[in-house]
Amino acid sequence: MRILRAKLDKGTVTEEVFSLKDFACPGGAGLVTEYLAKRLKETGGKFSPLVIATGLFTGTRLAGASIAAMGWADPSGEVYVSVFGGDCASRLTDHEVKLISLEGASEVPVCLHISSDGKASLTDASALEGRGTLSTVRKLRELYGERSSVLCCGPSAESCGAISCVVCTDPDPALPPRQASPGGMGRAFSERNLTAVVTEHSPRPFRISFSGRHKERFDLLSDTVNSALGSDSLTGRLLPLYGPLPEDWFSSPWRELSPELSAGGEMREKAAWREKILSSGGFCSMSCIPGCTVRCSNSVKDRKGAYLSTGLDHETAFLFGSMTGIFELRDICAIDSLTTDAGSDLIMTGQLLGELAKAGALPFGDAAGAKRLLRGTGSPEGALQRYFSENGGLPSLSVRPQTGIQRGYRPEAGEFCAGCFMCPLPWRALMKDPASADALMELASLIGWETDSAFPSSLEGTVSSFAESIREGFNEN
Ligand code: SF4
């Protein structure tokens, strides 16, 4: 496997050999944080690289393993790490790329391009300036093929950095529905003058292979994990049917914000929403990364049958729905699509809309008003910017620096380090079952990752200590 180091200030890309043995935590969020710590130590805590890495099991057939992580550190030493789905991790693995380190900043907008034969170079991206993410993805796929994976930022990155994200394409060649979002990831792209990372499909994709009894053992353990996912009620039944929608998923925040509203517009039943998605001509039970057997994603079409949005889930439903009293599926998806096109974090955008509804600037249930506000986000004429510049700037939202682990996962439940291994949803199900947890541990050892302490608690200290050393590095400088 390879590490690609793109020196954006020099316009060069070099490569190094990636060895599992060089890292205490050789995958996903842990690897990103450890690599950041190493680089910052070398450079004396100056400008942080932006690091993208694939999961520990990416490249094997283990379900939920094709996740990617992205991270950087700001000058105060806060570490921002996001774990995200889509086709990035699998496309990078196709070309034997384990990690990308984007260093320095370019003077002109650039794109990191990995060609179908695995060669990496920096190309001029001036022609993509000012475009929304949907248009950027269309253009890059026109140039490099429909099966290329694209990571890119949008107009939000420049002017609304705190709410900006990086979007990622899906295996289904639609538009870029996945987000690497906490902490203004889009800003990390724009500060480096990086517009996109595009990875072409490889005609001869690399896969981690095993031989002899190792292969038999790996297959058996993968089957153990897959059958645990299939028999768990969440990952085997509820998630494939309804996606990650909680029970009574529209009621709580909406009622808290506006108790005087009647419950008439609510659509609480998950089954009814599945029906709506299907009758829109859309799809349920889709996988957001190649090879995930849980398949909890979905896709919605507009009234003309055109693709509208992918991945309606608890975040979209709560934040674009119940926070604002908007309950029509296609309205929620259209708001999702506008947010994606701007390259804005959907959680923070939903929070903003909720703030506006609470302040009376957006009437509850006004879907057309919400869309008007979001159109043009990132451009100086954008209604959202205008509103906030006239009203004292963006409210202080919970921008979420992370210490190398996904906040929101509970360490005491063993959920903190999912981002090193696989999507957190299957991870949670597997961690409930000691046999599956043991199988994962053994799978890791078959890949070649050696750890002499217990799994997964070995990572808690490791990942946090990398984050700690990044902070110390910055403080010393
Ligand atoms: S469990 Fe759902 S969110 Fe996670 S990888 Fe599978 S399809 Fe994607």
Fold and architecture overview:
- The chain has 477 residues and is of the alpha+beta class.
- The protein has helices spanning 28-43, 88-94, 133-144, 156-159, 185-191, 212-231, 233-242, 252-257, 270-279, 314-322, 329-342, 346-358, 367-374, 383-390, 418-421, 424-431, 434-447, 458-476; strands at residues 2-7, 12-17, 50-54, 68-73, 79-84, 97-103, 110-114, 120-124, 149-152, 166-168, 178-180, 194-199, 283-286, 297-301, 307-310.
- It folds into two domains: 2-207 and 402-476, 4-Layer Sandwich (Aldehyde Ferredoxin Oxidoreductase,  A, domain 1); 233-390, Aldehyde Ferredoxin Oxidoreductase Protein, subunit A, domain 2 (Orthogonal Bundle), CATH 1.10.569.
- It contains 18 helices and 15 strands.
- Strands 2-1-6-3-4-5 form a six-stranded mixed sheet, sandwiched between helices. The protein has a six-stranded mixed sheet with strand order 8-7-12-9-10-11.
- Strand 7 (110-114) and strand 8 form a beta hairpin.
- Helix 10 runs parallel beside helix 12.
- The structure holds iron/sulfur cluster.
SSE layout:
Layout: E1 2-7, E2 12-17, H1 28-43, E3 50-54, E4 68-73, E5 79-84, H2 88-94, E6 97-103, E7 110-114, E8 120-124, H3 133-144, E9 149-152, H4 156-159, E10 166-168, E11 178-180, H5 185-191, E12 194-199, H6 212-231, H7 233-242, H8 252-257, H9 270-279, E13 283-286, E14 297-301, E15 307-310, H10 314-322, H11 329-342, H12 346-358, H13 367-374, H14 383-390, H15 418-421, H16 424-431, H17 434-447, H18 458-476
Parallel strand pairs: 1-6, 7-12
Antiparallel strand pairs: 1-2, 3-4, 3-6, 4-5, 7-8, 9-10, 9-12, 10-11, 13-14, 14-15
Helix pairs in contact: 1-18, 6-7, 6-17, 10-11, 10-12, 11-13
